[in-house]
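Box 4.2: Ligand-aware structure prediction
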Amino acid sequence: MKSVTLNSSAKINLTLGILSKRLDGYHELDTVMQAVSVHDVIKLTKKEKGITVCTNLPYVPNDSRNTAYKAAKLFFEQTGIDGGIEISVEKNIPVAAGLAGGSSNAASVLKGMNWLFGTGLTLDELCKMGAKIGADVPFCLMGGAAHATGIGEKLEKLPKLPQCHIVIAKPPVSVSTPEAYSAWDSLGEESGKIMYGDMAQALQAQDIDMVCERMYNDFERVANIKIPAIAEYKKIMTEFGAKGTLMSGSGPSVFGIFGSQNQARKAYNELKKKCREVYICRPV
Ligand code: ATP
């Protein structure tokens, strides 16, 4: 086989608590993530030598800064395979949005190359490789729902969200994750609450109302100060029947969870009047 095409899914955070800052400058996190059906499409084609990346967005780098490139380079280094790969990335996941688009692309490249080159690496081995590229890469390899701790790389699988409709809207600003952490540090606050046990229980019970009551994100407090659209979009989602709304990751994307497709569609239509990047999706 010479080429393979994969869907590369976004994620949302159902809870996100920022814990202590480590001596190496990284923050310890406690988060529950869920993969969703908004996805990029990645096509990998074998070639003689070298790594090339092309994307459909001019502001996403096509060189060694691209997470897909980093993943391919690491794969060749670690497996000792002397080959080349052409990577095409069709971006649909908003960029710098708190939806782990870059991490997901890296995960898809590792998974696809493992298949294409017949290396037979286990999920665990791929996750170890992925963690070198970014803390969210192991989760993106795993998919579904999971509890992550450490800097996001220690994972424990959870039952995925029960069937529901998720609306995601990204305000027209980008958030850099390092800047979001500095803003959190300058607030000098403690994490509001560690919600993990509660969220795991809600997912195990497959109780969507309980999940929505227990959603929580420390970064939202920071982002709310600078980005009024977050509160505005959440309000619209709630008015149209969302059971719960939250900002994802370090933001600025906001999501709402709906029990009915009709309500989700109406919220989507309303948000579309204000915001270009709006999506309806499902848990995957
Ligand atoms: P996270 O939720 O993991 O913090 P994010 O959704 O906030 O991620 P990304 O979309 O991954 O952020 O993009 C962050 C930065 O990485 C952007 O500035 C972008 O230019 C760069 N980048 C590198 N490779 C990619 C890629 N394959 N897809 C998207 N962005 C990429």
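In the box above, the bound molecule is adenosine-5'-triphosphate. Residues 104 and 184 are 25 Å apart (CA to CA).
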